[in-house]
Structure to design on (128 residues):
């Protein structure tokens, strides 16, 4: 059974940096980071596919960088120039359904849309 374990959250001041890590067990395909702030819906932050293709939400582009080591089934999220608005619980997620992935490959995509496995989240707090 796939499992995702996040680490690296914490509290920083406005303008500071943090780096989140996520280690997966089991087979995973596209992986990514999502976040949920109090009173708000969960939103997509950044994703990275098996071939290294990345995608970022507009609100983090230029400030956050997602990276991976596929051999170690690990992804990171380097967050810089953090703002109070970035305060949220950050969740690692992954696509783990082999059959669905194979279907996407057969049809040429779309990719990074079938996130079905989630970590428990790590809190990031940015103080103004």
């Amino acid at each position: 059974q796939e499992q995702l374990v996040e680490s690296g959250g914490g509290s920083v001041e406005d303008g500071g940096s943090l780096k989140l890590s996520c280690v997966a067990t089991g087979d995973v395909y596209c992986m990514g980071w999502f976040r949920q702030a109090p009173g708000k819906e969960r939103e997509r932050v950044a994703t990275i596919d098996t071939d290294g293709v990345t995608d970022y939400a507009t609100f983090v582009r230029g400030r956050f960088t997602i990276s991976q080591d596929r051999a170690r089934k690990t992804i990171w999220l380097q967050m810089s120039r953090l703002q109070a608005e970035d305060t949220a619980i950050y969740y690692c997620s992954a696509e783990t359904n082999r059959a669905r992935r194979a279907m996407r490959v057969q049809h040429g995509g779309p990719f990074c849309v079938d996130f079905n496995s989630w970590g428990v989240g790590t809190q990031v707090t940015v103080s103004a």
